[in-house]
Design goal:
Strand order of the largest sheet of chain B: 1-2
Oligomer: heterodimer
Distance between the termini of chain B: 50 Å
Number of helices of chain A: 10
Largest sheet of chain A: 6 strands, mixed
Strand content of chain B: under 5%
Radius of gyration of chain B: 19 Å
Largest interface: A-B, 26 and 18 residues
Number of helices of chain B: 11
Order of helices and strands of chain B: HHHHEEHHHHHHH
Number of strands of chain B: 2
Largest sheet of chain B: 2 strands, antiparallel
Shape of chain B: globular
Bound molecules: adenosine-5'-triphosphate, magnesium ion
Strand order of the largest sheet of chain A: 7-8-9-3-10-11
Strand content of chain A: 25-35%
Distance between the termini of chain A: 35 Å
Radius of gyration of chain A: 17 Å
Number of domains of chain B: 1
Structural class of chain B: mainly alpha
Shape of chain A: globular
Number of strands of chain A: 11
Helix content of chain A: 25-40%
């Protein structure tokens, strides 16, 4: 579904991503692990066209993403939850959700998605008319993921879904992400929490200093000697 | 008697304030969505004035000419931002470059108008003649009309921003450009729309004020300086703030002038501005930047 070959990202003359190749298939969760500054956000932003990039291949369902401006990505079926949620702080939760369906012409479909995301995150129902900026981190992350689902995407990209959240909320969100996958939406997310990420995902990649150094089924990733010694301290 | 004069001055202040609000709300909207200060905003008033004059010259009835001027200016504003402002936004020095370009645009338009139309004042007719009199209190219908029309237009704009799909897009881009793009909002189209709407509000102002001040090449300049003061006073980027501050400044100036003399008009505005900024650097109705 998502196919990337030899993706490079440079900020000016400073290259931060070197020849990344990866794929995401329908209805699977793929985790991208890497330490601070390794280039996780840069990969996501490059897929979405938020930063300049070059690649031998960058396509989704056969469409060349190199020719797709950011605001057309959702129409193709690719949705993105940016790092640190990035809600519209002076809008209500409901307004935020409705902006997630900005390009949807079919009102019935929007109503259906709204019902679905509110069933995934029942907490949002009572928060509908609260300003997004005034909510807790966990509630904001739920709103951000919900907004990302409003336009019925086939693939949801999430940049650090668990960043700065209390352990209880982390578990809750991880559960919902698996439910979303089971509903047929593929998820590609990045994280620094190796254990949790490789436990809840189908496949994973490891990024170090701008290079993908490992990739494979998550269970194998968890047992890989390099991952175990460097990231799990075993 | 003093009471009547006072009341008249307050109404005059509201009329003046309506003009400030029409200009400043657009200025604030552009700043809010694009972080660009449009120094050519006053010239949108001037072009709107000439568009209305030309429309009348072509034989259009005045209200139709003003409506046409509003539509024309919407496209002029959008086209100008597309040609001159958007190409700069991806540059590292966009903040300075956009100031230079809009300031340049302002100068070119003033001199262009001087070249094409000459320095002679062009007159627009009053939309309605006559004077409303309630007891000793007298007020020209044109001023009543300016107030009603501009307040309605600003309210309509506010409703558009709050409840329409593209209004939501403008607010979204203002709050987080990348997040808006990811939601499927065409950010560049939103910029053009914002510029177009701001220019349209200016054209409305010109159609209303033109009969009182005349239409001439540099008619936008003094309004523009005040509009900047109003935008800062109301809180940079706040649409409602610009409107409220516009009316407030209009009233303060008119009443202040009555108590002192007309040379003091600009002094009053800027003393108020400086005093407010001293106490509330983020403006009267703005929100503190985090
Ligand atoms: N806009 C930018 N301009 C210049 N350099 C940048 C920019 N954004 C990121 N970088 C650099 O690119 C490298 C990768 O950054 P990126 O944000 O992709 O890493 P990350 O893995 O997401 O980090 P984190 O875990 O902190 O979110 C870092 O060295 C960073 O300093
Ligand atoms: Mg990051």
């Amino acid at each position: 579904m998502l196919r990337i070959d030899n993706l490079n990202v440079r900020y000016g003359s400073f290259q931060v991503l070197w020849g990344a190749s990866l794929t995401v298939a329908p209805a699977e969760i793929v985790a991208l692990l890497g330490p601070n500054g390794s280039g996780k956000s840069s990969i996501m932003n490059a897929i979405m066209g938020l930063v300049a990039r070059d690649a031998d291949r960058l396509e989704f369902d056969g469409v060349d993403l190199r020719k797709t401006p950011t605001h057309r990505m959702l129409d193709l079926g690719v949705s993105y939850v940016l790092e640190r949620r990035r809600l519209f702080p002076y809008m209500t939760v409901h307004e935020n959700l409705m902006l997630g369906a900005f390009t949807e012409k079919n009102r019935a479909s929007t109503a259906r998605q709204l019902e679905w995301v509110e069933s995934l995150f029942p907490k949002l129902i009572e928060r509908r008319s609260q300003l997004a900026g005034s909510m807790s981190g966990g509630e904001q992350q739920m709103t951000a993921i919900a907004r990302g689902l409003m336009r019925s995407p086939k693939l949801l990209l999430i940049d650090e879904p668990f960043l700065g959240l209390a352990p209880a909320v982390v578990g809750q969100i991880a559960d919902v992400l698996m439910k979303i996958r089971d509903a047929g939406v593929a998820i590609f997310f990045n994280e620094q929490n190796v254990k949790l990420s490789f436990t809840m995902s189908n496949r994973g990649y490891l990024l170090e200093s701008g290079r993908l150094v490992l990739g494979g089924p998550s269970a194998d990733m968890l047992n890989h000697p390099h991952v175990r010694s460097v990231y799990l301290g075993i | 008697m003093l009471f009547v004069v006072m009341l008249e001055q307050i109404v005059n202040g509201l009329v003046l304030g309506a003009m400030y609000a029409l200009l400043a709300s657009g200025l604030s909207l552009i700043w809010g969505t694009m972080r660009v200060l449009n120094f050519a905003q006053g010239e949108m008033v001037m072009l709107g004035g000439y568009a209305a004059v030309l429309g009348v010259g072509l034989g259009l009835p005045l209200p139709v000419a003003i409506l046409a001027a509003i539509v024309v200016l919407f496209f002029v504003g959008a086209a100008m931002s597309k040609a001159l402002v958007l190409p700069l936004l991806n540059r590292d020095d966009w903040a300075f470059a956009t100031i230079a370009v809009t300031l340049g645009m302002s100068i070119v338009l003033q001199n262009g108008a001087l070249r094409v139309f000459g320095e002679r004042f062009q007159q627009l007719d009053y939309l309605i003649d006559g004077v409303a009199a309630v007891g000793m209190f007298r007020l020209s219908w044109q001023r009543v009309l300016i107030l009603c029309v501009s307040v309605s237009a600003l309210a309509a704009m506010g409703l558009f921003l709050k409840y329409s799909r593209w209004g939501a897009a403008i607010r979204a881009v203002a709050q987080d450009r990348s997040a808006a793009a990811v939601c499927g909002v065409d950010v560049n189209a939103t910029f053009l729309l914002t510029f177009g709407l701001s220019a349209a509000l200016c054209a409305l102002g010109a159609g209303l004020l033109g009969p009182i001040t005349g239409v001439y090449p540099w008619m936008g300049a003094p309004l523009m300086i005040k509009a900047f003061a109003v935008v800062v006073l109301g809180g940079l980027g706040s649409f409602q703030g610009a409107i409220l501050a516009g009316f407030l400044l209009g009233i303060l100036e008119s009443v202040g002038v009555m108590l002192t003399s007309s040379e003091w008009r600009d002094v009053i505005s800027f003393v108020v501005l400086i005093a407010v900024l001293y106490v509330r650097p983020w403006g009267l109705f703005g929100v503190r930047e985090r």
